[in-house]
Amino acid sequence: MREVISLQIGQCGNMIGSAFWREIAEDHSIDLEGNYYGKSDKELAKIDSYFSTTDTKFFPRAIMIDLEPQTLDEMRCSDLKKMYRTDKFISGHSGTENNWAKGYYTLGAEIKDLVMETVRSSAEECEHLEGFQICHSLGGGTGSGLGSLIINSVREEFPDKILETFSVTPSKNPEIAVEPYNATFSVNKLVENADSCIMLDNDALYKICQENLGMEAPTYSDLNNVASSAIAGITSPIRFPSTLNSSWRKVCMNLVPFPRLHFFTISHMPFYKQQQEKPENSEWKILDLFQRMVNPNNLIISSGHDLCSQRIYSAAAIFRGNYSSKELNDALDEIHNEKSGCFVEWIPDNFLCGTCEVPPKRSLASASSIISGSCVKDTYLRLSEQFTDLFRQKAYTHWYTEEGMDLMEFTEAESNMNDLVSEYSPCCCCCYDEEEYGEEYDEGEEGS
Ligand SMILES: Nc1nc2c(ncn2[C@@H]2O[C@H](COP(=O)(O)OP(=O)(O)OP(=O)(O)O)[C@@H](O)[C@H]2O)c(=O)[nH]1
Ligand SMILES: [Mg+2]
């Protein structure tokens, strides 16, 4: 069995993490006290990947981390309280007040050893640890700063394990002015230390809630339900028998053509409201699912562009429900004809697809994909412009330098982000032309 250890860091990381566990517990017919109530072997066949087991109970293979105690205290009192293992909660005494430097250098450093001890003991509980899944926001100080610190430490200690992140990017109009700083410092670290980063765009999650689900004023909880459906979708090949590669490493092999370009967008359909009781339409034809999945309205990215206006390297998609490989291949051929212009022509067979017989409980069929390409570029460009506007004035930098950061780190992070934007730019087709960029590419390869 290939186990994945999930690390939830900061408020956002823990809230999305909780929505995810709620979603996949239902997927596997596990109640909120960790008891299995289903009847299908398929639900249990790969359950160890995400759940640890005792004789009778299933627990999330998760570590819950926050520098301030409130979020974890609320989780300890929530309806999920019996599901989590209490020895996997780690909290500090106060938050970072949105300061990446406190999460990375000062307050975060104080709890790093405890976190790593728990990571080590969780790894020892696994037979064949596949890797780590980290859920955090890039805007808050704990998710971004402590998140970056833990990612560095996990990479150092488990260099051969896959490290994947679900990273929530700040919205266009961030709640806190310094979010572009925090996000840029984090991306600077994620470029080097993560294998794959799935970007969850809060503006896009909000739009999906409003436009697809008709919610007037979506709350974080609504956004998190949407995010967790998509995360449940793309993790389904690891959790259930499927015809798609069930190893993250192999999926990454296909999705990452160049080591630094490991930032992905995901899409999913159908989304549903948490309070929805009846299953969605069960009659989805696979081509319908396919077409909707690649529709901009179901992409968790805020630019809203058609995929074909992007430079797509490759994608991996999973279809859950009662579909045969033939149906899938026919639909894939049709999509290939329709969208062939969207994909770079120099990667053959760049749409990896598979089926999983176990459907989600609420929709009876679903489609989810991970897309590797320039879709993330607009978000990074926007963050980089917001960063530069602040940094040009040296606004708020004192909060960071007081925690031991050097202004050189601002300059380095800014330039790394700008490089990433140009590497993702469609006009930069020759980015990795060996003669012109060979040296830079080699450096990136060593670093990752
Ligand atoms: N989707 C979603 N985004 C959230 C949620 N909570 C916070 N955010 C976003 O995350 C960013 C703030 O990060 P938090 O996770 O609250 O901060 P933190 O990691 O706890 O760090 P501190 O600053 O130390 O509190 C902002 O961009 C918020 O919009 C949530 O439950 N869901
Ligand atoms: Mg917090």
Topology readout:
Blueprint: E1 2-9, H1 10-27, H2 41-45, E2 51-53, E3 58-60, E4 62-66, H3 69-77, E5 89-91, H4 100-104, H5 107-124, E6 128-137, H6 141-157, E7 162-169, H7 179-193, E8 196-201, H8 202-212, H9 220-239, H10 248-255, E9 263-269, H11 286-293, E10 312-320, H12 325-339, E11 351-356, E12 366-373, H13 377-392, H14 397-401, H15 407-424, H16 434-447
Parallel strand pairs: 1-4, 1-6, 4-5, 6-7, 7-8, 8-9, 10-11
Antiparallel strand pairs: 2-3, 9-12, 10-12
Bound molecules: guanosine-5'-triphosphate and magnesium ion.
Guanosine-5'-triphosphate binds next to helix 1, helix 6, helix 8 and helix 9.
Protein name: Tubulin beta chain
Domain Tubulin/FtsZ GTPase: 47-242
GO cellular component, one term: microtubule
